[in-house]
Amino acid sequence: MEALKQKILSDGRVLPGNILKVDSFLNHQMDPVLIAGIGRQFANLFADQSISKIMTVEASGIAPAILTGLALGVPVLFAKKTASANMDEETYAATVHSYTRGKDYTVRVSRRYLHAEDRILIIDDFLANGQAVLGLCDLISQAGATLAGAGIVIEKQFQDGGRILRQKGIRVEALAIIKEMSNGQITFA
Ligand code: 5GP
What we know:
Layout: H1 2-11, E1 13-15, E2 19-21, H2 32-45, E3 53-57, H3 62-72, E4 76-79, E5 91-97, E6 104-110, E7 119-127, H4 131-143, E8 146-156, H5 161-167, E9 172-180, E10 187-188
Parallel strand pairs: 3-4, 3-7, 7-8, 8-9
Antiparallel strand pairs: 1-2, 5-6, 9-10
Helix pairs in contact: 2-3
């Protein structure tokens, strides 16, 4: 997606540890026009997949997920990272290792909102080592639902996530694929 790649080149900042900071338009301050375009792009890519629900992980997956849900006309379910008193006791839960924070956390969704008849499209902002998507896959399989694929805004191809997920037969569509980020220089695949 050309507009996204241009935005990454103009506004993205490469931090130590192969982290790309895109908090001027995606992760902190958000560009609704760009993210609406991202949502339409994912909706087009998965238009024939009879998606019944979008899933993502809070917080930074929510914006692209909700605009994809808007374009497809389906609900968006985000997995929560903290257990809250007002969350249903009946939850599906999975452990995820966070690449950016270097620690494990638990993702949870209420059983009330994820069913065996659902066809799920996962949306996330980044794909690094694939742990966030695998955690969501775990929740989906616990519910007996079907995974139709994963839409990723930015895939870092030099990390293992894309290969791991595709080897498992998961359809992964990324709108910007970064081949390398050496010396602060971003190169797309
Ligand atoms: P994975 O689970 O694939 O290892 O990492 C994906 C998750 O980690 C994403 O949900 C995202 O929040 C975070 N992440 C991974 N790499 C980056 C990065 O380079 N920049 C930012 N901002 N987040 C990242």
